[in-house]
Amino acid sequence: MKKYILVDNLWELKRYKSSLGKRWIVEIDPGDPLKLSRLQSFLFSYQLIEKPIVFIESVEKWNKEDLKWLVEALKKSEADVVVSSSHSEILKKFGKFEDLSVPKPWETEKWIGKIKEISKYHSTTINTDAALELLKRVGTDLDLISKEIEKLSVISDHPSLEDVQEMVPLYSKPNLFEFIYLTLSKNDMALEFLKEILIDTHPLIVVKNLENSGVLLTQLILIGRKDHSWNDIKDVSKRLQVKTSQIADLVGFSIGNKKRKNLLKVIKFDDMIHFLEELQDVEVKIKNGGDSKFLLLNFVKEWIQGKKERDLNVYE
Predict the structure, then answer these.
(1) pLDDT at 48 over 60
(2) Stated pTM of the model
């Protein structure tokens, strides 16, 4: 048995290990300087009384030479082995792998399914409304979601929406990812988000992120395609060398439990050129000693007020 798993969270890793049953598991730490000699004994020793499952974690942390050795060693070994990594490109070196990574931020239905799966693991059942509220409060952190469901399972076998609202704190705070979308779409909520973000984030960091996203949206407008499939997003992501999540956020894919509008259908090229020119002016003034918070807040406010002719209504 040789299994390769793409995993980027502790909950899935723990669940997978428990699914292996009561077999003796030998865990190989990526930071162990003696890992190759240990592996040599387990992969090629046939005198062990009990045959273990060799669990090799986080191989993305291995250097290239050791990783090459492991790939070749597993081709020759008859031992039962599980290899885990958070990088799909590395697992492809070994062969076909199972994807246990968390869903993309906009894949709401998959997140709901994952939350229900975790609730069963904790011997409880959560309905869709309660799962959505949990996602809203905790965000897309699978390990934290598991901890909160474990807490809910103590009070009820079927935690309700009201139970989640009462027992689960609001972890999700305004973040740059959400703020940028709200700003580009000229939503009034952007100003409130910005006030919270500026408490512990330097204005120039916000300016740079706004600029990067503004340039990306302008590039997407120039491509000339307003509707994108998931394959389109992946292709454009490779071409422009940006994360798929950044593009998906701008072209109408849902994020978390919010439905998005496709900004390519509501923002014009000339609007974005004006946006970037004004933003660069703000950046220069901040660097020259201007009141950074005032300049940024005023810029966002004036951009939002440009929606007077029509309400973009970016949230459905």
Answers:
(1) no
(2) 0.54
